[in-house]
Design goal:
alpha/beta; four-stranded parallel beta sheet
């Protein structure tokens, strides 16, 4: 495991290592800012594995998790992260809120802001909704996934997992496979992994690629076997059938035949290939159970563990200026 910050990722003189008070996406982050969040997350891992998990870093702060879209692991991960740092955590259940009665997104944002939260963690089914809310509130905002746009903390935890397993990200060949079209995870990972020097390729049927794929600077493969040749990491994506209207694939059985990750197909990659999946998995659709449960190569449960540490780091770093942490209260880097 390497936690050293590469020389090219050093913070320029006179700047804060992370000058932002919100995290709305990977787009716009500098490599040293990404590396800084990953380094900060490292220090929470041992704490999370110990019996003394509770800290008072965010004591007195209120964290509202407003999830307009269903979630299990992301919501739970943010709640665990906030509580372990001592924040007062509140989960807004949208199905039981005024949203269900027709309240607009902006009115909801103004209502939340009037309660003076210190951190808003927002998941929304529409791209851009988190940005819109962030413009109307006076606290730190974290994007927990918006439509097909971005899921920055998922990309950070993926990078964290890769860095710990492989010792580096720079120079690795990483294949992101499956439903690229509907995946915000893929978009955030394209940007983050490329910024840290990885060679990123995508593997998917043409119907699940999206028109903008050529502008993202990735190598595109429509053949799964060729797309996996020689890669260090295979990141599978969930087939998001709930977002599909029309015939994107002939059938899940045929999709698995051509694009499912199996033991046989994985032999095209490097012998020490790392297998990842952001979850939840569709076993037998995008990934075979034997591959998913192969602890020697699969890092899927480790991704969940890294998620808590990464979210603790984000909650801590984004609120340092608000908390008056020495060295973070100036305008340097703004």
């Amino acid at each position: 495991m390497s936690t050293a910050t590469p020389a090219s990722h050093q913070t320029p003189p006179g700047l804060h290592p992370f000058p932002h008070t919100s995290l709305l996406g990977i787009a716009g982050l500098q490599p040293w800012e990404i590396a800084y969040l990953l380094d900060e997350a490292e220090r929470w891992i041992d704490s999370n594995r110990s019996t003394a998990k509770r800290h008072d870093v965010l004591a007195g702060l209120t964290q509202v998790n407003a999830f307009f879209e269903n979630s299990t692991r992301t919501l739970l991960s943010f709640e665990v992260a906030g509580k372990r740092l001592g924040a007062d955590c509140v989960n807004m259940i949208v199905s039981a809120s005024s949203i269900a009665k027709g309240e607009t997104l902006l009115d909801t944002a103004l209502t939340l802001n009037a309660m003076h939260p210190d951190i808003l963690v927002i998941r929304h089914q529409d791209a851009g909704a988190v940005q819109l809310i962030a413009e109307k509130v006076n606290c730190s905002v974290i994007n927990a996934g918006d439509g097909r746009h971005e899921h920055p903390t998922q990309a950070l935890l993926d990078a964290m997992t890769i860095r710990r397993r492989k010792g580096r990200i720079e120079g690795l060949s990483i294949a992101i496979c499956g439903d690229i079209l509907h995946s915000r995870v893929a978009r955030s990972n394209f940007q983050l992994l490329s910024a840290l020097g990885a060679r990123v390729r995508v593997v998917a049927p043409p119907t699940l690629l999206g028109a903008e794929i050529e502008r993202l600077g990735v190598d595109v493969y429509a053949d799964m076997d060729k797309g996996l040749e020689g890669v260090d990491v295979v990141m599978m994506l969930r087939l998001q059938r709930e977002r599909m209207q029309g015939g994107f694939i002939p059938s899940t059985r045929e999709y698995f035949h051509f694009f499912g990750l199996t033991e046989k197909r994985l032999k095209n990659a490097k012998p020490d290939v790392l297998v990842m999946h952001p979850g939840p998995m569709n076993r037998g659709v995008e990934i075979d159970t034997a591959v998913a449960d192969d602890l020697a190569r699969s890092a899927i449960t480790e991704q969940v563990e890294m998620g808590v540490a990464v979210r603790m780091a984000c909650l801590d770093v984004l609120t340092r200026k608000r908390r008056g942490v020495p060295g973070w209260t100036t305008e340097a880097g703004q």
